[in-house]
């Protein structure tokens, strides 16, 4: 009896959402380490995981200090893309005229590589935080707009007719029907956006900055200090994961009714 | 061949209920009155006529069913009566007032229940109250009463997906009734339900209509359903839609499902079906 209970506990542990990716991560790190030993890859090409961990431990205060500007720029850029992206999507979805003027240009602008124009922001705004924020914003903006437009447009027209037939004003109908309906799509856009905003911030730091994780990476590549560079990569990945998780939590709070969250409701009740 | 000629002779000497009834004594200030109402959609390829001029009158408290082939403009008719769509020509009077914009004196039920997934059943039913900015406190007891009337007591706090299709559609009927409109417009309300649920819902709808005394305009593809429910059946032609005929249904009320085996019922169903066989098919 006790044995089966233990087995149940183990299988429950194995089924916990975070365990499987963690196990896979452990597997990757072991494979990485083995590959370096097996094929005798020199340390200036790929550092051993042990060295990276060592750098993470010794340089922890410095890395943490450098990750603040990056985090700050990412969050600012992400918030800007949400604040501008959602209203722009509302306009595009709400008006055929706006859509025909703006949407093609938006797609066109998206095909301009941000990395290529990032130096321009340094020219305009100097080496401070602003070029990073703009870079993060530009990368995060597009997915929010595209998802939100799709969300606003996928409302059943009969549902809107129904609310309008009850003499709901345009704003009332929008608040009661269109906006909540678009929330799941908006959040899936926000989740893509937040991870891209990290990339944007780092790109901003690459082209012209003297602080941030991107700056640390560039400096360490310059000196062939690969363990530090990989440590910076780990920090960036952690940053992306944490921000994604935060948005995911907010999504659960805002749209607990949505299909993707239903399991939780059943368990809760 | 022989049965055909037989039924032909039947039609030639119609029984009283097979008479075409263009109109009943029409009160000017109650029910729905359409005079010369037509609709033409503008499109890039030119004008597409959807409805040819219609003249008919639906009496207060009447159960009026429109049956016709797909794309004959039935849904356009419904939208025009609710004020969502202006007619190209003609006038629509609802309760004696000309319809120019959404007037809120209708409750609408579509084929899909269209409940908002983020609102529980009770607050879905309350949607028209929110839209019309009426007092929530005043209408909350009424909403609960209606849910009781359709057998959804105890489901107020449930979310729509936790209910079956039939239950969802009942909730949407409550939503159509909560603001106490004079008229209920139903666009193939049970088309998405399975045949058994559909029959049960039809019986229940008749009960609800009797208890609330609403004027009902219901659109359907199903001829038996039309005859079973209706006081009068309007048969529409193919696009552009026009009135092919209006029939009285003299079956006594309340009707049970047994009414479907009544000779009057089968005769009427056959008679209406003929319209579509001479025109083409229903779908």
Q: How would you describe this structure to a colleague?
A:
The complex is a heterodimer of chains A (269) and B (283). Chain A is an all-alpha fold. Chain A has one domain: MetI-like (MetI-like fold, Orthogonal Bundle), CATH 1.10.3720.10. In chain A, 83% of the residues lie in helices and 0% in strands. Mean pLDDT of chain A is 87; it is low at 264-269. Chain B folds into two domains: 26-105 and 181-283, P-loop containing nucleotide triphosphate hydrolases (Rossmann fold, 3-Layer(aba) Sandwich), CATH 3.40.50; 115-180, no CATH class. Helix content of chain B is 35%, strand content 23%. Chain B is of the alpha/beta class. Chain B has helices at residues 2-12, 74-82, 121-125, 127-131, 136-149, 165-177, 195-212, 223-229, 263-279, and strands at 32-43, 46-58, 63-67, 89-94, 97-98, 106-109, 183-187, 215-220, 232-236, 243-248. In chain B, strands 6-7-8-3-9-10 form a six-stranded mixed beta sheet, with helices on both faces. Chain B has a four-stranded antiparallel beta sheet with strand order 2-1-4-5, covered by helices on one side. Chain B contains nine helices and ten strands. Chain A binds chain B through residues 156, 158-159, 161-168, 172-173, 176-177, 180-181, 255, 257-259, 262, 265, and chain B through 79, 82-84, 102-104, 106, 108, 110, 112, 114, 116-118, 127-128, 130-132, 159, 161, 179.
Low-confidence stretches of chain A: 264-269
Shape of chain A: globular
Biggest interface and its residues per chain? A-B, 23 and 23 residues
CATH level 1 class label of chain A? Mainly Alpha
Roughly how many Å apart are the termini of chain B? 25 Å
In CATH terms, the superfamily of the largest domain in chain B is P-loop containing nucleotide triphosphate hydrolases
Q: Total domains of chain A, how many?
A: 1
| Alpha-carbon distance between the two ends of chain A | 29 Å
Can you tell me the CATH architecture of the largest domain in chain B?
A: 3-Layer(aba) Sandwich
Our count of helices of chain B gives: 9
Low-confidence stretches of chain B: 1-17, 22-26
Per DSSP, what share of the residues of chain A sits in E-state strands of 2 or more residues? Answer: under 5%
Largest sheet of chain A: none
Output the strand order for the largest sheet of chain B: 6-7-8-3-9-10
